[in-house]
Specification:
The chain is an alpha/beta fold and 780 residues long. The protein is built from 30 helices and 18 strands. 50% of the residues lie in helices and 12% in strands. The chain is globular. The termini are far apart. The N terminus is likely disordered.
């Protein structure tokens, strides 16, 4: 039957939309109206309560039904099926980034595995057939209902309590669903670094910790190879042109080679039976065999003790490795006494993710989140080693955090003076404090405080008291300490001598430092919650907040930020605006989302920064960065995301950095405070005026264009001055006059004049003059 042209056109359009590997999906932020704007507060709460009550009833009805799946189907088959069909993706394709959601999230499989371990294995040999979508839908309904039941809030709670419950709801949602707060390669690398510095596991288990981690990764890589071979086998037999060829190919790939069944089942007579059963329909026969091949899926995620010892790479460690695998495993029935509901927020299989099938055989379907669970698996071994081992491990983590912070700042700010471990006395409470990192670069000082404490399970489950305590330890305390040191340095310009534990004296000259940026760094965080201090303060989860909202960033996020941003001015601008943003806007998103937002806007939001009328939902913006980092780790060349700047603007900044004139950091930050569209407009005006000046088409002797940035609370002014005189004195005086003519705008934070010799201009500029209102700097 011929296709109509309309249908053909639609078909071509769908083909053209096929996702490309490592293609970044752009998320455009758009304003939208509040759908509940016409409802009163009481009406809104009533609507939410109804949603919560309905969700609770739905959860209580559906969740217990999950157990029946493991009575009807074999647990290993069901878990392998979900991992293969629902979670495995073609290399470089992120369905969540493309579609904004997934039909089956990784934590669904974790929940199913925990439920499977509450009962004996059924060993059923029945395939799912067409019921796969039913399982997907049930898991989606269960997890959504679990989260939405939190909307059933008592009628008498006040607004602050409502905000608190919302924050705790966010935390629970992230705990349930979000994995890999760091990229997988980051998590693996940090785990390797920590355990290369301590011999805890070697002492207790007689196993090399680094080699052990590499063995786990080797097994996971082996599973990936098997998965691809399985896919190739499916494609091979389905490519047969007639039933005998299909059967021959299927038999060779899935029966004879794998040794799964005896000779009778591999005979041509058996193939003819299947052909007859399929009604002599070739496609139907292929479907039947495809369903049958699914019964072999557990083999993709299975391994033996011998295979693990081979991956470890040292013979004679059989019993030692058995001890490790047993510490990482559960057998069927081991979780029978657990509260099933706790599997959603505190799933034990995230620390012990392997299923022990028998004394020599194991099953591991959660390989897609290996970067997330490997640190937890290693920590299980540490805790088995006792309290002394835990103490050494925590110290190793603290040292690693400080070492990594120093390394990242040294790499991103190569000309800065960086000081570690400065001890100083607070003039108010007379106590001695130790600063982890102080970076002095031109007119800026960055004060960094590190906290390596862990976020315990009760906090991740949204336990209010534990969340309060975690925020205090990881966010509030380092923020206050950074602010105290900033106050000391701001009030005492000059040369300071700070002692250190090592005996070295840090000589810090902050005479010219006008701006300080505080930063709290951690190894672990609470995602969108710990990164959004203002939200936590308004929700009452921080009783004694710092005077200013100090951003809290994980060391993994800092590495990503410094990898993406191209120079020290961009990094300094990000950290400066990031600290200011905490006090200016309401937003929802983690640090990766904020970085994606920054690349689009440089955090230049105009009047939205101070109006208080806008909230920014930045969730999934970080997905724009994922293809670059994942591709780079896999050896694939992917375009690096960049801050959105015009070419001339970028070159201006690069030249300022190269020349490093006085106040060069302030000049760079001033330029970055101009939104992209205003850069383009200013550049067009400057080029037009330069051409007119060059050809004598202006009425005045001296001409310039100006740009004043918004909002007024952090406004700067840029003037562009094309000139024709070769007299340097005349030129310099005129440029200073331009700036002085604007000095009455006392709200301006800084003024910059860019000079260009119109007849023979140098690129990107000939001369600049800058003033912050107190003293001028020039590059004449």
């Amino acid at each position: 039957m011929p296709r109509s042209s309309k249908k053909s056109s639609k078909r071509k359009q769908r083909v053209s939309e096929k996702p490309k590997p490592y293609e970044a999906i752009k998320y455009e932020l758009r304003p939208f109206a509040n759908p509940l704007a016409d409802l009163s507060v009481a009406e809104r709460r009533d609507a939410f309560r109804k949603v919560g009550k309905d969700a609770k009833q739905k959860f209580d009805r559906i969740y217990p039904q999950l157990l029946a799946w493991f009575e009807e189907f074999d647990a290993l088959y069901l878990l392998a099926f979900c991992s293969f069909y629902f979670l495995a993706e073609p290399e470089g394709i992120d369905r969540e980034a493309r579609d904004g959601k997934l039909d089956f999230y990784p934590h669904y499989l974790e929940i199913l595995q925990a439920i499977a371990l509450t009962r004996p294995r059924s060993n059923a040999s029945k395939p799912l057939m067409g019921r796969a979508s039913e399982l997907q839908t049930m898991m989606s309904d269960v997890t959504n209902a679990f989260q939405l039941r939190s909307y059933d809030v008592p009628e008498d709670v006040d607004e602050k309590e409502y905000k608190k419950r919302f924050v705790l709801f966010l935390l629970q949602s992230e705990t349930a669903a979000i994995r890999n707060p760091a990229f997988s390669h980051q998590s693996k690398r940090y785990t390797k670094k920590i355990f290369s510095k301590t011999k805890i596991i070697e002492t207790h288990f007689d196993i090399n910790a680094v080699r052990l981690g590499e063995a786990v990764n080797h097994i996971v890589n082996r599973f990936e190879l098997r998965l691809n071979l399985h896919l190739a086998s499916l494609a091979y037999f389905r490519g047969g042109a007639h039933w005998k060829e299909v059967w021959q190919r299927y038999r060779n790939k899935f029966l004879v080679v794998r040794g799964n069944v005896g000779d009778a089942a591999t005979s041509d007579e058996e193939g003819r039976k299947i052909w007859d059963m399929a009604g002599h329909d070739l496609d139907e026969m292929k479907t039947v065999l495809h369903f049958h091949s699914d019964l072999f899926l557990p083999n993709l995620f299975a391994f033996t003790l011998d295979e693990f010892e081979d991956a470890y790479g040292e013979s004679g460690k059989t019993e030692e490795l058995r001890k490790v695998l047993n510490a990482w495993s559960y057998e069927f029935g081991d979780l029978a006494d657990e509260n099933y509901e706790h599997f959603i927020l505190g799933n034990p299989v995230l620390k012990r993710p392997i299923v022990k099938v028998d004394s020599e055989a194991y099953f591991f379907p959660l390989t897609n989140i290996i970067g997330h669970i490997l640190p937890a698996m290693m920590e299980v071994l540490v805790r088995n080693a006792g309290a002394r081992a835990i103490e050494k491990y925590n110290k190793a983590k603290a040292n690693l955090l400080e070492d990594e912070a120093f390394e990242h700042f040294s790499g991103r700010f190569p000309t800065a003076k960086i000081f570690r471990g400065s001890q100083w006395v607070d003039p108010v409470d007379k106590r001695t404090y130790e600063n982890d990192l102080l970076i002095v670069i031109d007119r800026f000082g960055i004060v960094v405080e590190c906290k390596s404490g862990a976020v315990d399970p009760p906090a991740r489950r949204g336990g209010e008291l534990r969340v309060i305590d975690t925020l205090k330890n990881l966010v509030v305390d380092p923020a206050k300490q950074a602010i105290r040191l900033i106050e000391l340095l701001s009030e005492n310009r000059g040369i300071h001598q700070f002692n250190t534990v090592s005996g070295q004296v840090n000589v810090v000259d902050n005479t010219l430092v006008d701006h300080y940026v505080p930063l709290a760094l951690s190894l672990e965080d609470l995602g969108t919650v710990s990164g959004n201090l203002r939200m936590c303060i308004e929700a009452g989860l921080i009783d004694d907040p710092p005077e200013i909202a100090v951003p809290s960033v994980s060391i993994h996020d800092l590495e990503v930020i410094f990898s993406i941003l191209e120079n020290e001015v961009e990094a300094l601008h990000y950290l400066t605006r990031r600290a200011e943003l905490e006090n200016q806007i309401h937003y929802l998103g983690d640090e990766g989302d904020l970085l994606g937002f920054y690349l689009d806007t440089a955090f230049n939001l105009g009047g939205a920064e101070t109006s208080g009328e806008y909230s920014f939902n930045l969730m999934l913006k970080s997905k724009e960065l994922d293809p670059y980092f994942v591709g780079r780790e896999r050896g694939v060349s992917v375009p690096k995301p960049r801050l959105k700047l015009t070419k001339w603007w970028r070159d201006l900044i690069d030249y300022v950095i190269k020349r490093k004139i006085d106040h060069w950091t302030e000049v760079g930050l001033l330029l970055l405070n101009v939104p992209y569209d205003e850069q383009r407009g200013f550049e067009r005006q400057f080029k037009t005026l330069s051409s007119r000046v060059k050809h004598g088409l202006t009425n005045e002797k001296y001409n310039w264009v100006i740009l004043e940035t918004a909002p007024k609370e952090r406004s700067y002014l840029i003037a562009a001055f094309p000139y024709v005189s070769r007299d340097r004195v005349e030129r310099n005086e005129m440029m200073k006059h331009i700036l002085e003519s604007m000095i009455d705008r006392d709200y301006l934070k800084g003024l910059l004049c860019i000079g260009l010799y119109a007849p023979e201009p140098k690129y990107p500029y000939d001369v600049i003059v800058y003033t912050d209102g107190r003293r001028a700097s020039n590059d004449c």
